[in-house]
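Bench log, entry 3. Co-assembly request; chain sequences pasted below exactly as received.
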Amino acid sequence: MTRRYARPETLRDAPTHYCAGCGHGIIHRMVAEVVDELQIQGQTIAVAPVGCAVIAYDYWRLDCSEAAHGRALAVATGLKRTHPGKIVFTYQGDGDLAAIGTAETIHAANRGENLTVIFVNNAVYGMTGGQMAPTTLLSQKTATTPRGRQAALEGYPLKISEMLALLPGVYSVERTSVHSPKEAQNARRAIRDAFMNQMENRGFSIVEVLSMCPTYWSKSPSEAARWIQEEMTGYFPLGKLK
Amino acid sequence: MKKTVLFSGNEAMGEAAIRAGLKFYAGYPITPQNELTAYMASELPARGGIFIQSESELAAINMVFGASAGGTRAMTSSSSPGISLKQEGISYISGAQLPAVVINVMRAGPGLGNIWPAQSDYFQATKGGGHGDYRLIVLAPASVQESYDLTRLAFELADRHRMCVMVLSDGILGQMMEGLTLDDAQGPLPLVEKPWALTGCQGREPNVVCSLYMKRMDVEKHNLFLQKKYLRVQAREPRFAEFLMEDARLAVVAYGSMARIAESVVRKLRAKGKKIGLFRPVTLWPFPSRHLAQRAARVKKFLVAEMSYGQMVEDVRLSVAGAAQVGFYGRSGGGIPTESQLEGAILKLWEKGRR
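Structure output for the full assembly:
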């Protein structure tokens, strides 16, 4: 077997707009690697979110649709139902998938749409300037929780993956992270599984990926990775939920 | 072979869509258009299409976005409050230049209003209910037959211009039953090439469907491109119908159900020797402004009748640009004007300034 360390064919040779230490670049690359590996580049349609990854189509060499904020899974439903032979996936952040798009997420999952969902959870709204996300941890400071998130005022971080795992229409739910090379390798494996599930018509698969946002966590990239390990995984435990 | 069947307006629009080549429909229950959604549920899957009852109006319009982005003929339908919810998606569809058809079987507002017929969504339909400088082609049927014919036309125009086309019906037209002539010789609309569609990038450069242009000047360029397209549509697509207009001294301007009421009144007044005609816009956008302006050279009085408190009347005033008197009569909120009420309003304008 030959090991290649070249740029995946599905990843464009373009500098990204992501901040230093951001997890999106890693996750974009892993998606591209998996698409190459499964040889589905020409059959895959991506749906980009509104959020930091809004121009993911500038980085992937894939057919790609924009979706209004939160509506990625409705757009993906329209695409997949009319192109059942293609591979359709959404790439969404926590605000997109678990706040403004909660209804679309839950109902696409509940219908058992044969889709792959890459859910990037960095516990904050990045693109708009670091506001509280549905997954912001208790006492975490953000632009809109300047004193730290308080359960009494802002509620608890939303465990949407656990919620989705309850639904009979959902085939697979897994929470992973990219804060260390080991975890990143596992995330890549989970992403591959989620694409394979769709290719085998098994139904709705979601991979949650805990990801660093050093900029809006006010941390260095290495501190941010450590914060996932020490704080985030406590509330959002890694592993296969379904 | 032609056959005439008894159909409701709602079902006629559904049948028209399927016969035109619709392959994807998503909708959410709302009165008074439920028969259309139920018709699609029973007919579309059996005739090679996909039906989804969505979790919301937002989801329905965004499913249509997705299906259309994939190159498939797609439609959703609703009634006024639901159409308000769809505005976000309609704006995105317009920005991304996706062909799509949206049916609005209007009911009374604002808010939840009630389930009775109204025409108070004219502004929303013709002036852009969502954000941004975009236009919808808006078609206004006035019978069950026309509900069918214009729904078919809607798909043709959507493909021709890569635009969202709205069929603006109302609770009367949707619910009432009339004879509908179906021609079995009429096949689906020809498929147009959609080289921009998302089908997987096998053998070509990837396609992107979006309305986002991160560079400021690029958005302006995109807008100028859209405006040029809208000018072409304005030049090419206005449609209207006339009734007894040849020698009319006063013209009633009305569309949809209101035009049906107006037609009866015009006929009655003609029998009394009054030279009154009916001008019925069929496209509400593009509004048949030039044609109405030409009539204003001869017809010196226009009475605009609507089931609203005065929306289309603004376009009539803009069209005649002071060349004629423009009066208004309207009821809304579920009140349907009676023939005698409309007759009274017409006669008042007719008599104004005489002697």
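Residues 265 and 271 of chain B are 10 Å apart (CA to CA). Chain B has two domains: 2-236, 241-351.
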